[in-house]
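User: structure tokens for DUF4382 domain-containing protein, please.
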Amino acid sequence: MKRSFLLLLIFSLAIFTFASCNDSEDSDDVMEMGTDDDQGDDENEESTKSYFSTTQGNRWVYDVSVDQMPATRDTLIVVAPVNQDGTQFTDLEASETSTGFMTGLLSNGLITEDNARLTYTGSITVPVDPTNPFTIDIPASVVYDESQIAGTVLSVNEQTITQDLNGFPITIDVTAETRQLGVVQNYTVGTMTFDSVIQSELAVSATISTVVVGIPVTVLVPQEVLVATNTYAEDIGLVDSTVSFQYEFIDLTPFGITFPFPPTASNVTTQQAVDIMVTN
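Assistant: Done. Predicted tokens:
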């Protein structure tokens, strides 16, 4: 049950939007995309750039590590184009043993890019209780947008999720926000250097409550529990991701209330491209 609850928390916190960035020590020459004064001109110009190559068969291989533990290997593949209501999306598939946060999100939805603006939409089934899984719809959310200046909020999504846990009705209120961070030149990941990358950020806040003998009880006070940072290379796709996850629950043991998960937890997951096979 501990694993089930953490899956519920992690996935419900982040499945609405997923873009992010990484302020890497290997990055140089950060360029913020315009200022408030010239932003209007930028928005009138269509970009011919792409930061996610969606040719069928494209493949990315990543090393994924949690808290600097030995890395596991993820693979992400472009499966096929999908047409929904006249809009062309791209479907991606992950290796069965994938553990990367971004690998999971990308492979559980559809993406579309237009004028260097990436949008994600989809849904995911969360098997908190294998006999009673539930599906969460992911609305169209902007992942990155080259036309926006650094600090621009791209998407804000709020959702309330309810689930029974060991006889307690759990309510999770989640707010996820994506922000543009800018474009970076000469960005290095491992042994690879990319001429130009785009970065954005996802920050997620949550509060969790339950009801005990008819009395509302806050289990998790409002707090930022997840920050995901991703980097996308021009004409390639996701090349670098760092996800920080942490929470601190209120201690209810004096009231005889215990839950089957740790009261506090934190970890950092890194996902870096080690092999890229793309065509445009």
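User: Anything notable?

Assistant: The first strand starts at residue 28 and ends at 31.
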